[in-house]
Each structure stands twice: as C-alpha cells, then as structure tokens.
Amino acid sequence: MDGLDIGVYVPQMGFTFSDVLHRAMRCEELGIGSVWLYDHLYGPGAAALPSLEGWTLATALLSRTERLRVGHLVLCNQFRHPVLLAKMATTLDQVSAGRLELGLGSGSIEDEHLRAGMPWGSFAERSRRLAETLEILDQAFASGVIDFAGEHYTVRQVPIAPGPVQSPRPPIVVGGVGEKFTLPLVARYADVWNVPTYALGELERKLDVVRSLCAEIGRDPATLRLSVEAVAAVAADDAALPEVRALAEKRFGAPGFGLREGGLVGTAAQVADRLRQLRELGFDQVVLFTHDRASDRTLELLADRVIAAL
Fold first, then answer.
1. Distance CA 166, CA 93 (A)
2. pTM attached to this predicted model
3. What are phi and psi of 70, to 5 degrees?
4. Vertex 99: Cα angle to 207 and 172 (nearest 5)
C-alpha cells in the first residue's frame, strides 16, 4: 500500500477564510497530504451563499502552510487566459516552494458564465479551448517561452520566468471521463487523471479506455497517475455508523456523488479496506469529500485510524 496519497476536498461554499485555513492546517498537522478547492464564481446551486475565490484562496493557504499540497478540482479553463494561468501557476509554485497541484477542466456550470457575460459554448468548443490551454502550459513549463497559434489563442514569444520549482512542472491534473473529448486530453497532456464521483460506478471500464488511448499515442499508461474523488463517511465504531451514514446520505445522496458506488461508508477499518481495493485497481491518490465537511473529528479519524492502517 505504499504510495497511497489521501487528500481532502474542502469546497469553500459557506466557509469563512478562517474555516478553510483551520481545516488546511489540521490536515498538515495530521499528515494528510493535500487539500482541494473548487473554482466557481459562487457555490453551484447556492448563489446566495458566501464563496471565496479559488485561486486567491489556494495562494493564501499555501502561504500559511509548509508541507501541505493544494489544488483545485478543477480550475475552470474559461476563467483565465492560458498565458496568465501559466504565469500564475509558476509564481504560486515559487511562492509555495513547489506545492501546487494544477487541476484543470473545460468548465461545468453554464449559469455562472451566462450571469457574468463570459463565453460558454458547446462541450466540444470548450474541450478545444482546454486542449489549446494544455498545449500552452506544456510549452510554458518545458521551455519558459510560449509561441502558439490556435483556433482560440494566439501567443507570440511570451516569456514565462521564473519557471516552476517542481521538475519538470507542477502536476497537471485533468478531471473527467468523457470518452470523446476529455479522455483523449488526459492521455495526451495530463500528469494525473482525476475521476469524478459521478463515474465511480464504471471505474474499471474507464481505466481500460484511458489505457487504450495512451497506447494509441505511444504513451506508457504507467506514466499517468490515477486519482479518484469519493465521498467518505467514517465512523468511530459500529454504534456511530447509523448517524454518520444518515448525514452522508442527506448531504451526498444524489446520484452524482456516487455515495454507494464509492463504498467509503463505514468504520475506519472498512474504509481502509475499500481504499486498498482502489489501490489495487491502480489508483494512488484518493480525494475525499467527508460527510461532515472535514470536521476535526473526521480528520483525526482519517489520520489515526484510516491512513495509519494503510
């Protein structure tokens, strides 16, 4: 089981900065490897709730911690010009001494784009924009100069210096499971493929697709790190499990969260067994939505009884 990285997803909807910072610092103190945020203009489906901006929040967390890695699942490619994103990423990697995880996706919430007057477009169009951004980031990190002419972006000899601390680059995490548009981008550009909760019921088939796509372009699938999101509801013991399960079902019972498919509802020992199964499938990173939004008690259970068991 060596190498299984456990991260915690802390969606910032309804949280103050102090709330998020406390959770990040507890994760670092407990040896939990990473914290992940969302990238939306407001909380999906809850526009009236306070919601801190994702990149600014990640910068603040990285500046207040020393070992914790921080990323987004995932940044919206529509929000930032890829040259600016490259500059932001190399700068934050410098600021954090190499602890940035660069998650990126094509955009998922049409409503926030329409409200803000931002371009949306079809999934195919957004995927083509994402492909160009990934190519631009690849250039920026590899050579320190971007020179690119595409359908959506044209960049002429823009230097990106200083470069990142991480070598060869901050891990580029591409999330999604769409076989026509997203997974070919994963195979070609991603360092890490993140499987969202809604695909937990078809992990093995999607794995086969990604490996086949890698083979088609001559990439060794072993060079692609596998990551998965899942809801975790960890109970201290059997007596506490009904209450923990009920809260998980209340918050994450919708089909898109894959609560049952993920199989991470149970005592610490049961959750650890399921994590072993994911590791055997080839996943070496699991990012957890906790049933109670990363309370101190749950983070301590994860560290002391789940991660320690692995």
1. 7
2. 0.96
3. -135, 135
4. 35
Q: Quick one: which of 184, 168, 166 has its CA closest to 176? A: 184
Q: Does the pLDDT value for residue 44 go beyond 90?
A: yes
- Asked if residue 198 lies in contact with residue 256, where contact means CB atoms within 8 angstroms, the answer is yes
Can you give the length of the chain in residues? 310
Q: What is the mean pLDDT of residues 222-245?
A: 97
User: Any idea what the Cα angle at residue 99 is, between residues 98 and 105, rounded to 5°?
Assistant: 110
Structure tokens at 173: 């995490």
Ramachandran bin of 157, using left for φ above 0, alpha for ψ from -120 to 50, beta for the remaining angles = left
Dihedral, CA of residue 38, residue 25, residue 63 and residue 94, to nearest 10: -80
Report residue 122: phi and psi, to 5°: -70, 165
Q: Tell me how far apart the alpha carbons of residues 221 and 47 are, in angstroms, rounded to a whole number.
A: 40
Checking if the pLDDT of 82 tops 90, the result is: yes
CA 240: distance to chain centroid?
30
CA distance 3 to 264: 19
Please give the backbone phi and psi of residue 283, each rounded to the nearest 5 degrees, phi first: -80, 130
Helix (H) or strand (E) holding 205: helix 203-216
Q: Are 26 and 8 in contact (CB under 8 A)?
A: no
136, 145 contact by CB (below 8 A): no
